[in-house]
Design a protein that fits this description.
It contains 5 helices and 44 strands.
């Protein structure tokens, strides 16, 4: 068959649960129905061969449109659990005469595993249970070939097997459980949230995926739209303050909600959010508070708070003072953490002047919801009664502070000034004064009972120009002195007196070149004075009388508190004289005038042609302050020599080699172990283990080497074996082992002395074992203890 004939030569019968298959033939615009009767298939197939082409009247060749059967879609029901494979359909070709020469081949998705074909009859069976949710359709290809040659008899034809859905999947809420919020007091029908369920069944087939929503829990507060799953409020005026959370259960059922449908549920937790629907309210209409008259402005007097059942900004309350005679004396603030109204003192209160105040406070919501204005007003008022309590107030100074002046060097007892304080209480107690010592550690001042401050010693302005002391006024007769005490700062300025002579501003040496020219200024000097200088006061300079006519230097006063030093001659030599001392007299022109003589040191230095100083020969003045360079070099050289000697000594010690042969007199190490218990003698076999003395290796007498590992193993001596360990002659056994150890090259290079509790054969002392001591009492004679003196008498009496 040619390919142009398409599937016309390959007919298909679909036998599935007695349902016929519709195929459409492409014959012009017409259509034909394919049923189960085979003669119609043969007839239609025959017509395809008979009318391939026709010839027109004019000899034209008329081509007829091609025909092809559309049979490429089959159905098989999912989840079939019958005992036999499901017959999907049957393939049959027009060239199949029924003699078995035609073989049908099936390929594509699931061919050979899920779908199998009888190659003789063309019957297609599904061998496995199909699940539409895993795969909805399979694409297969069928072809008829010659059985003997496998040569295609028709072109391959492709068809689709669709898995027909059944209602085997319940609805599922993939995003549940849900959490939703809705404002309290919402109107009926307010949308809360939309829940959505999914059904894995085919939505295009039947009602398997047609879902209907219903509410199982949450009525009568909420409802759900059956088709959309939108949850809405069902009751008006739901109050958050009464109930805040609701648990709603929503069901989704397929099959349009009819009997037999599958269902799934989800939980929705709906929380009512707050709105400002409650006004603030003070728990009390009148509050009483008290404040002591000794409180300072800014201190807290009391607190009050209005309650609001709303949350967040809806529950915020703003407070303000709206009336009362204490509005200028008290102030109101709000605590940001506790949201309380805080009443604080704004001004001092006096019990003797006014003993009570009244305030009116308003608390209101700053954020008001316009929907609930009719539920207002959203504010409340309260009255505060504040009483002033009497307190024992400290004395009060007439002036806030005092500043006095006193001349320096004034004699002790000089008057500085007077302070005054009084008791403002009704008792008007007398007041005493004192100077706290921590403010006047040197005790320069004292104060009398009436507040007069005097000096106790002369003051020096240059040491301390200001004295800042505290004066305490104490109410006499007060029950608690520290509560009836007032402190005041007194500032005392020490007036200057010209009592210090001027000095040179710098004590540095003046460096001068040997080649200095006469008339050259080598230095400009200035002065300092510890006393205060008047703006018209200046220093004057002159040479001391004893050097006024010297031939080396001169001084010129510049009359601006400076002076210039000039050179009078040339030919200075530092070898002849390297230092010159020039006394200068300085006068401060004060009242009284003060003067002093200061010495200017001039050092002669060696300079180059550009008057750059090269050397001033200052080493003799520097060396006494420390070690010279030569001394440091000598110390370092000694240290290096000592280190070299130590290194050489260590190297010589390392080069000294130990002898290769270990001589017995040079390498004897002893390991003496002392025990405080008495041995049991030769018959005490539990004192030590004879087997530990056995050494299977022998020796031939060579001395051991410490620098090499023994390579030769020497045989045991004749007659040495395990039987010796059981020999009764222990003395010979030990001697033999000692000889073997001495001649064993593999033994350690030292001897280990071990002591055994064995006296040897023929010992005069006999055995020390206590085992034989208890065998008989006839041999025990302790009479000799009587002759040992009174110390052993008690022991002799016990034994005898």
């Amino acid at each position: 068959m040619r390919k142009q004939q398409g599937c016309g030569l390959l007919r298909v019968l679909l036998l599935l649960l007695g349902v016929s298959v519709v195929c459409t033939a492409a014959l012009g615009t017409g259509s034909h129905r394919l049923d189960h009767r085979n003669h119609k298939h043969r007839h239609l197939g025959h017509s395809l061969h008979k009318h391939r082409q026709r010839t027109g009247k004019e000899g034209q060749v008329l081509h007829r449109s091609k025909r092809g059967w559309v049979w490429n879609q089959f159905f098989v029901i999912e989840e079939y659990t019958g005992p036999d494979p499901v017959l999907v359909g049957r393939l049959h070709s027009d060239v199949d005469s029924g003699d078995g020469n035609i073989k049908y081949i099936l390929s594509g998705e699931g061919a050979g595993t899920i779908f199998v074909i009888d190659d003789r009859t063309g019957n297609i069976h599904a061998t496995k249970t199909l699940d539409r949710e895993e795969q909805a359709q399979y694409t297969l290809t069928a072809q008829a070939v010659a059985r003997d040659t496998n040569k295609p008899l028709e072109p391959p034809s492709e068809f689709i097997v669709k898995v027909q859905d059944i209602n085997d999947n319940p609805p599922e809420f993939l995003h549940g459980p849900y959490h939703a919020r809705v404002p309290e007091m919402s109107n009926v029908g307010t949308s809360v949230i939309q829940v959505t369920a999914t059904d894995a069944d085919d939505p295009t087939y039947g009602n398997s995926a047609r879902l209907v929503y219903s509410i199982l829990q949450g009525q009568p507060y909420f409802s759900v739209e059956p088709q959309t799953g939108i949850i809405r409020t069902a009751l008006p005026n739901m109050d958050r303050e009464a109930r805040q959370e609701y648990d709603v259960v929503i069901q989704a059922k397929d099959m349009g909600g009819h009997m037999g449908g599958l269902s799934g549920t989800t939980e929705v937790r709906i929380t009512l959010t707050d709105v400002n629907d409650n006004p603030p309210k003070f728990p009390q209409s009148v509050y009483t508070m008290s404040v002591s008259e000794d409180k300072v402005p800014g201190e807290e007097v009391g607190r009050l708070k209005a309650k609001d059942l709303d949350l967040g900004e809806n529950g915020l309350v703003a407070y303000r003072l709206i009336d009362g005679d204490g509005m200028n004396v008290f102030e109101l603030t709000t605590d940001s953490e506790t949201r309380e109204a805080v009443i604080k003192l704004k001004k001092h209160v006096d019990y003797e002047t006014k003993r009570g105040y009244s305030l009116k406070v308003e608390g209101s919501n700053p954020h008001i919801d316009s929907r609930f204005l009719t539920w207002g007003p959203y504010k409340d008022e309260a009255t505060i009664k504040i009483s002033v309590e009497d307190a024992d107030e400290p004395p009060v100074f007439i002036a806030p502070s005092y500043t006095y002046e006193v001349e320096e060097n004034a004699p002790a007892g000089a008057v500085v000034g007077r302070v005054h304080a009084k008791d403002t209480d009704a008792a008007n107690n007398p007041v005493s004064y004192m100077i706290p010592r921590y403010t006047d550690l040197e005790k320069f001042f004292s104060i009398s009972e009436d507040g007069l401050i005097t000096t106790t010693k002369p003051l020096d302005r240059e040491t301390q120009a200001w004295h800042n002391i505290s004066v305490s006024a104490i109410e006499i007769g007060a029950p608690e002195l520290w509560l009836s005490q007032a402190n005041l700062r007194v500032n005392i300025k020490v007036k200057d007196v010209n009592d210090n002579p001027p000095e040179l501003a710098s004590n540095n040496e003046v460096l001068m070149c040997e080649t200095v020219s006469p008339g050259k200024v080598i230095e400009t000097v200035s002065a300092l004075d510890k006393d205060e200088m008047d703006h018209r006061q200046h220093f004057s300079f002159s040479l001391a009388p004893e050097v006024a006519h010297n031939q080396n230097f001169s001084l010129t006063d510049s009359r601006d508190s400076t002076a210039s030093i000039y050179v009078l001659r040339k030919g200075f030599s530092r070898l002849t004289q390297d230092v010159y001392f020039l006394p200068i007299e300085i006068n401060d022109n004060g009242f009284p005038p003060m003067s002093s003589t200061n010495t200017l040191t001039i050092r002669v230095c060696s300079c180059d042609s550009k008057d750059t100083i090269l050397s001033c020969n200052v080493e003799p003045y520097v060396l006494p302050a420390g070690l010279s360079t030569g001394a440091l070099i000598a110390i370092l050289a000694c240290i290096v020599i000592l280190l070299a000697i130590v290194v050489l000594f260590v190297a010589l010690r390392r080069q000294k080699k130990e002898p290769l042969i270990v001589f017995e007199e040079e390498d004897i190490r002893e390991n003496i172990i002392t025990y405080d218990d008495e041995g049991g003698g030769e018959e005490d076999t539990e004192a030590f283990d004879i087997a530990t003395l056995q050494n299977p290796d022998g020796a031939n007498g060579f001395l051991p080497r410490k620098d090499i590992k023994p390579e030769l193993q020497f045989p045991l001596r004749p007659g040495m074996g395990r039987s010796e360990a059981n020999s009764v002659d222990v003395d010979d056994f030990i001697k033999t082992r000692i000889a073997d150890a001495d001649s064993d090259p593999t033994a350690p290079p030292y001897d280990s002395i071990q002591i055994y509790g064995y006296e040897g054969r023929g010992s005069l002392a006999g055995s020390l074992s206590s085992l034989e001591s208890v065998t008989t009492e006839s041999d025990l004679d302790y009479d000799y203890l009587q002759s040992w003196g009174p110390r052993f008498k008690k022991l002799a009496d016990l034994i005898s």
